[in-house]
Amino acid sequence: MLDTSNTARITLHPHTRRVRIYSGDTLIADTKGAIELRERGYPNRHYIPKEDVDMSKLSTSSTVTHCPFKGDSTYYSLSSITDVAWSYDQPVEQMQAIAGRLAFDTKKVTQQTE
User: Fold this and answer.
1) In the chain, which end has fewer C-beta atoms inside a 10 angstrom radius, N or C?
2) Residue 59 lies in a domain
3) Which 3 state secondary structure label does DSSP give 21?
4) Per the domain annotation, does 5 fall within a domain?
5) CA distances from 19 to 64, 71, 82 (A)
């Protein structure tokens, strides 16, 4: 487990299994370097390094949100799916391990974990 000072609410865990994200039949991301974020009251999320995401398929959305435990997030869209992923490019100090990684909305895309 990665060190976080907010362990009662959020924990980060290295994830060594392969994670793939698909939109239909199109592969969007493929990694063995995800970090799993577990936040009380929310589904577990895999934060995937941007270098393992086909960023050419995504565009920056106008949506920006703030989480007091993680910081400000930027959202990304596919041509046919709005706000399909988000990233904390400058998260709060305790969440630096997820900086520059993307998490995907698994209600909008398919996530396969091997």
Assistant:
1) C
2) yes
3) strand
4) no
5) 25, 24, 21
17-26: per-residue pLDDT in tens? 999 999 999 9
Cα separation, 70 vs 63, whole angstroms? 16
CATH number at residue 41: 2.170.150.40
Closest of 89, 94, 57, 51 to residue 72, by C-alpha: 89
Closest CA to 19 of 55, 39, 49: 49
Single pTM value for the model: 0.90
Q: For residue 2, give the amino acid letter.
A: L
pLDDT digits (tens, 9 = 90+) for 50-68: 999 999 999 999 999 999 9
Q: How many domains does the chain have?
A: 1
